[in-house]
Amino acid sequence: MVRLGFIIGFIALLGALLSGLAAYRVHDQELALDRIALARAIDVHASLVQDRLTERELLARVASGLFRAPSVLKPNMLEPLRSAIYAFKTDFVVAGWVARLQPNELAAAQAAIAAAGFPKPQIRDYSDKPIAPASLTHPIDVLMDLEPRSDETKTLPGRSYDQDPVRSAMLARARIEKRSVASDPLPLLRGNGPIGIIVAAPVIPEGATEPAGFVTFSYELASLMLTNDDMSLFSVALKDPRKEGGELIANDQGVVSTRIGADGPAPSATRTVSFGGRDWQLSYYAKTNSARRAEQTAIIVAAIGFAITAMVCGLFGYVAYNNLRLSREIQVRIGFERRLTAVIDELNHRVKNILAVIQSIVTRTLRHGSDIDVARELLIGRIHAMSNVVSLLSESQWQGVKLKGLFEARAIPHADRIAVTGPDIAVSARAAQSLSLLFFELASHSDEGLSLVGKHPHITANWTVTGEEPEEVFHFRWEEFNTSEATRRPDSDFGLILLDRVAPEALGGTAKRFFTDVSYVYELTAPMETVVDMTERDRTDKISAPVRPVR
């Protein structure tokens, strides 16, 4: 009995220890997963908010570009845009035309507003007090037309924004900066109306330096912040730029209210979005307590472990195995995400390099004063050469390209007239891009009219590798027979730069070109270390390797 009690006690103690360990591990894992899920959801939400804000700013720019200010004041200023603005977006509260009027234009503006059928055509300040033209010494901004027209909005035309601190500051910035500008958050339509922002884009007539007015769009803040989601992991607030520590937060019904952030909990995360030339800070507050939820989950796991220990001790092995499997899956997932980030960074780096090369090719080829037909053929050929080498690199998973493959007929002109000799080495991605453009430039400027001499080819391209590792040297020689300085077509400016500077510098070597009695010769010498570049190949191979769980 003593031995049995000892065994039962030992098993119970072991079960208690294992249950506690399982609860601890589950607690950490649940906490980590909740944090990862929250961070991902916040990143996605911030990206969507930035896209939505950018779309609204673009709408204002497009509308101002489509708008043509009339030469005289007349009603229905937005008539040319009425169908277009509804086609763009339908979630704006009000779209308006704010004219910048001289004091002597107020009477005509008042008549135009009355003719448009608005019930309060008199020009007045934002508190609805009439404005006397004789008291004005400078232009004022007056709302002349708006969409949609309702009983609530029809009374707004005729108001001047000069006395409204938020709207006047927005219009002043748009006038000075000559671009679309967003206002600070403010109540729309009325003092207790929904809180939102207004985007104003200046309309500058052709040949003028000052805007004739502004096209404005107002949006509710809740819809822009994408807050009406009761299934979200968080609530989002916008930092109020007018109050230190103040925030504007919307509930699940879309009602925006103001609160002081210092009196409440600190945000779980913050993100910054750019809109109207300013940075707006979004604060995110988790709706659930991740630590408490993890603790509750850990307690449940421990209780289950104790119950299982009391009934069947053998189930502890299964619990341990299941816990290990879950841990490995999380490790594999984290490793995969890290590998994916590295792949994206590497892809961005390579795409930027390729785009930079193409931009240089286009700029140099289509320079001012160049013959358009020749430039077009050269541009197509150079980009074709780049496309061919990228295709070859993609087929080899960016592990390098066989040097002889760069002389294919689809890559360079007159490939059938070129005798290629040399070891078939695999050059790195960077070297392949430079050599592909180099071979195209040499072949495109070779003299097409000259034929072969005897059994000797008209053009020869050969290369050798000399020396011992790690001091091996790559030697390349291009020779065009039966040509001279007088008969060969001169190299273009871009070609000279590529031959003399870009290709040698990319490979860390030197180059020279000259004419002999019977041929034109171009020679390139570079260390094999940069031509092959094993570090780049090892990095690519490491990124493409499958993710393995940590043991």
From TrEMBL:
Matches recorded under PANTHER family: HISTIDINE KINASE, TWO-COMPONENT SYSTEM SENSOR PROTEIN
InterPro entries recorded: CHASE_dom, CHASE_sf, Sig_transdc_His_kinase_HWE
Subcellular location: Membrane
EC number: 2.7.13.3
Transmembrane intervals: 298-321
GO cellular component: membrane
Species: Bradyrhizobium sacchari
GO molecular function: ATP binding; protein histidine kinase activity
CHASE domain sequence ranges: 129-225
Keywords: ATP-binding, Kinase, Membrane, Nucleotide-binding, Phosphoprotein, Transferase, Transmembrane, Transmembrane helix
Lineage of producing organism: Bacteria, Pseudomonadati, Pseudomonadota, Alphaproteobacteria, Hyphomicrobiales
Protein's name in the database: histidine kinase
